[in-house]
Each structure stands twice: as C-alpha cells, then as structure tokens.
Design goal:
This protein is about 45% helix and about 20% strand. By secondary structure, it is α/β, with parallel strands linked by helices.
C-alpha cells in the first residue's frame, strides 16, 4: 500500500540507492541506513512496517540487528526481509531463526522487489486484523 514506511539497511551505496528508488517510485515512505548503528538512529523516530535487512553489515550484522528489533516491542511487528550476496548453505534458515520473515538473495531482482514488498505488507495487514 503506497505511503507505508519502509527502512532499507545496506552498506553498499548502490544497492541502497537502487532499492530506495524502486520503492519510492511505488509510493512507499523510504528511509535508509548504511549500518546497524545508523539504522537504530533512524528507528528512534521512524517506525517502518517493513525492513529490508542486509545480513552482511559492518559492526553489528543483520542477524544480530534482527534479533534486537524482534525483541523490542516498538519494532517487533515490522516485517523483516533478509538479503545477502554471500548465500551459504544454511544462511536462509539462520535468517528465519533470527526472526526474518523472508530471505531474498542478491543481486535483488528489480522486477520483482516491489511485488515482494507489497505481498509481505498485505500479509502483515491481514495478520494485524485478526
């Protein structure tokens, strides 16, 4: 749904810009962060319904940040989509175990990302209505 808040966390500026442009063009309210610490600063005043989380972040990695967000009542309801360029066997399960709602390999498919985001947000809205 247009206007919904989305946070993209990725240390690669090209990936960050690409995802931001794609989702902003769909009408989402998009904020970005280059690492976990910056993401936490953004989250102090911004409540995304969906987070696109790079797992390979400098400092605190995406798995640790996901666990932190899912443990916090203020952010626990956000949908978290894990992304990584270095998919190893078991990484998808690690992401799901940490609290991620789905796993998207890099490079992100620009043709399908908006639909994936819309699908997850629609599912989250339905679950919130129960």
């Amino acid at each position: 749904m247009p206007g919904e808040p989305v946070l993209i966390i990725d240390d690669n500026p090209i990936n960050l810009k690409l995802a931001r442009v794609l989702l902003a063009a769909e009408g989402y309210e998009v904020r970005t962060a280059a690492d976990a610490e910056q993401a936490l600063e953004v989250l102090a005043s911004f409540r995304p319904r969906l987070v696109i989380m790079d797992l390979q972040l400098p400092g605190m990695d995406g798995l640790e940040l996901t666990r932190k967000l899912k443990a916090d009542p203020a952010t626990r309801g956000a949908v978290i989509l894990a992304v990584t360029a270095y998919a190893m066997k078991g990484d998808e399960q690690k992401a799901l175990d940490a609290g991620c709602d789905d796993y998207i390999p890099k490079p992100i498919d620009t043709r399908t990302l908006p639909a994936v985001v819309a699908r997850h947000l629609a599912r989250a809205r339905k679950e919130g209505e129960r």
